[in-house]
Amino acid sequence: MNPRGNPLRTKAVAAAALLALGLTACGAEIAPSGGPTTASAHYPVTVDNCGTPLTFRQKPARAVTNDVGITELMLSLGLADRMAGYVMPDDKGRVDQVPWKDGYQQTAWLSKQQITKEIALDAKADLVFAGWHYGFDEGRGVTPQAFRALGIDSYVLTESCRSGKGAERGVMGPLDALYTDLANLGEIFDVRERADRLIADFKARIAAVPQPERRPSVFLYDSGRDKPYTAGKFAAADEIITRAGGTNVMGDLADSWVTTGWESVVERDPEVIVINNYGEVGAEEKRAFLKSLPALAGVSAIRNDRIVVLDYVDLVESPRNPAAISTLAEQLRAAPAR
């Protein structure tokens, strides 16, 4: 899955600008509407983020998010007024159909590229909310440590916690990661009751999804022609497939998003293929490619034309996960027996 600029200001200029505006987590709270600053007995508050304690002395006022799922975690909690803007590509998918769609109009779309230090500084951000493979990137030098050096706090998407050189994701189940981030955001932004209601609603909706009598096998196709890019057991897509009543044929791979071989797909003979819809290569082009690939001609999903399309944001940690589970469950219940 491919993750979802302007000269870098000097550290001295950045620090001066941030000090003048009081935008770090150590200063006084800035009301987003330009109104008076208000103290709160809720702060300071400390949350655990990927095993690291983060302390906030006041409510962030100018958060910048990277990628659609991360942005919608904020919007689903009604936090658009605490955002300086979001970074995401223009294939973010059906934002006009989500319950929190109005939030997109209440904040700014800063860039179609990935988050950079320049974007955060230009937005006068006091918090960057991103994830490893979802904006944070050691190769580009865009890390929580790099933002901290600029006086900007960071929060790491829990789905992506364990990622980097020699380490992979998997500190907790993907849906637990979703609930953890909602609860932590509730604490950070002092909307814990709102977060708890949303978590309870999501859990109830997922628990109510009827399961098929038989669990069909599922292959998640993200991208790739010579070799397919797919979801291992640490990706959110694995638990979405499981909760929908299926079995991820690559669920034994101790990785998140991973490249495998077409021969392993053939060997595991999935009954259903789920296409991850995003990027320059659309779902229909991906479907046509899969159906034209000679190696897959005998695979059950191809023979029976059991190909399901879900949007990218459905398959990564996001508040759209419950609806995606319900949608996929309907498709899996209709899967024919071998």
Short synopsis of the structure:
By secondary structure, the protein is α/β, with parallel strands linked by helices.
Question: Topology, pairings included?
Answer:
Elements: H1 11-21, E1 45-49, E2 52-56, E3 63-66, H2 68-76, E4 83-87, H3 102-105, E5 109-111, H4 117-122, E6 127-132, E7 135-136, H5 144-149, E8 153-156, H6 174-188, H7 192-207, E9 217-221, E10 229-231, H8 236-243, E11 247-248, E12 257-259, H9 262-268, E13 272-277, H10 283-292, H11 300-303, E14 307-311, H12 312-315, H13 321-333
Parallel strand pairs: 3-4, 3-6, 4-5, 6-7, 6-8, 9-11, 9-13, 13-14
Antiparallel strand pairs: 1-2, 10-12
Structural key phrases:
338 residues; alpha/beta; Rossmann fold; 2 domains; six-stranded parallel β-sheet; four-stranded parallel β-sheet; 13 helices; 14 strands; globular; disordered N terminus; Iron transporter; ABC_Transporter_SBP
The CATH homologous superfamily of the largest domain:
Nitrogenase molybdenum iron protein domain
What is the CATH topology of the largest domain? Rossmann fold
Helix content: 25-40%
Shape: globular
Distance between the termini: 30 Å
Report the β-strand fraction as a percent range. 15-25%
Could you name the CATH class of the largest domain? Alpha Beta
Number of helices: 13
Beta strand count: 14
Structural class: alpha/beta
The CATH architecture category of the largest domain equals 3-Layer(aba) Sandwich
Average pLDDT, rounded to a whole number, is: 87
Biggest beta sheet attributes: 6 strands, parallel
The SSE string, one letter per element, is HEEEHEHEHEEHEHHEEHEEHEHHEHH
Protein name: Iron transporter
Signal peptide: 1-27
Domain Fe/B12 periplasmic-binding: 62-338
Organism: Streptomyces rubellomurinus (strain ATCC 31215)
